[in-house]
Amino acid sequence: MESLPRKNAGISTRVPDWFQTDLLPSSDAMEAQFVGESDGLTFWLARPQDYDEVMAISQDIYNGNDYLPHRYPTWMTEHDRVVIIGRRNGKLVALDSALVVDGGQTVVLEGLRVCPSERGCGVAGVIQRVTDCYVKQVYPSVTTKRLTRADNPGPENLSKFIFLSCQAILSVFGEAESFKRFISGLKAKLESTEKSDGHSNNNQKLFVLKDRHQLKSILMEPDLSLRLQLPGGAIIQDWQPLKPIESNLEILERRNLTWMVDCFDDKPMFMSLHTPPYPVPFNAGSLRFNIDMFGTDASLARRALIAHLEQIIEKIHGTVLVHVYMPKTFWEVMRQFCEGDEGVKQWEIFQEQLFLEKEMS
Question: Structure pTM?
């Protein structure tokens, strides 16, 4: 899909009447910070003690794959993170969050949710406008907002954004004890495939990047985006798009990621990373494991999947959901590679990860 034209080139700095311009983030995290009101709703900065109410409106979100129960406490203290809740008659009905990245130029929207009784009533749009305005007030250097989403919003809503890229998602799930057999099966398939293709096992290797300076050197290479065909010119880490620039390295370091590349000395043509497994509500308590892949060589993607799973195989338990985000050209190869195991099955049919952008107004 080609990029959509920009709707407006200018940036509006007008602050709506309802927005409380004199209120900036409070140093007292326990005191409710009023942001403004609109459409019968009042808006506040979220606090740690709002956790239970936030979880109450989040039931069944993402089919049990919701990351927020695990990440909400971290969001409360994360640098340059804004989390806003909306209340109607005192009851929490909506949440939106934004993280300022790219050296203060971009805001990444995350976590939007509305309670079931308020869905379809325009509440999502209202809280997004409140969040945008608050971000512009506190971070006036922000000119662009970005977001990723799994569902296609339709032509009308999509026309409000610039379409940057579309990644494919392959998801599998099973019990932790099944993954050892699954990995063994993948290794056997890989060996068989390489023999039939006339490749040696030593032709392609992946290296775990443990040295911060080495990682920085690779991420700062000016032609990295082109070589790896980074979606929209960004590293999308667990749905969070970040340009490979120095100001974003600290954000990536917070995530405790494991990085892999296909070489050390030459310029890498493939890169992948994973987020440590974390708990999600699925099946009364499961682990979610996310892998992000970038590059053009699907054979390296097969090898990387095995390597990432081996990194965490001794740390997982119970039901495990593995989500692999990759170029669309990898998807069919990876689907065939993963099929056939009775204990680890495909979670859903083909899914996409849309990457969108628009100018702040």
Answer: 0.88
Structure tokens given for 234:
């960004």
Query: What does each C-alpha distance from 317 to 87, 204, 223, 277, 289 come to in angstroms?
Result: 38, 31, 40, 10, 12
Cα 132 from chain centre: 19
Encode pLDDT of 126-152 as tens digits. Answer: 999 999 999 999 999 999 999 999 877
**What percent of the chain is predicted at pLDDT more than 70?**
89
Residue 89: partners with Cβ closer than 8 Å, 6 or more residues away: none
Q: Following DSSP, what letter does each residue of 68-105 receive, concatenated?
A: HHHHHHHHTT-TTEEEEEEEETTEEEEEEEEEEEGGGT
User: Within a 13 Å sphere around the CA of 260, how many CA atoms are in the beta-carbon half?
Assistant: 26
**Angle (CA) 41 357 332, round 5°:** 115
Distance CA 329, CA 84 (A): 38
**DSSP structural state of residue 275:** E
Closest C-alpha to 136, from 248, 19, 240: 19
pLDDT tens digits, one per residue of 313-339: 999 999 999 999 999 999 999 999 999
d(CA 185, CA 338): 9
Q: Is 88 exposed, middle or buried (0-12, 13-18, 19+ CB in 10 A)?
A: middle
Cβ pair 232, 355 in contact under 8 A = yes
Dist. CA 346–CA 112, nearest whole Å? 27
Query: Rounded to whole angstroms, how far apart are CA atoms 26 and 78?
Result: 14
Q: Give the Cβ contact number of residue 10 at 10 Å.
A: 7
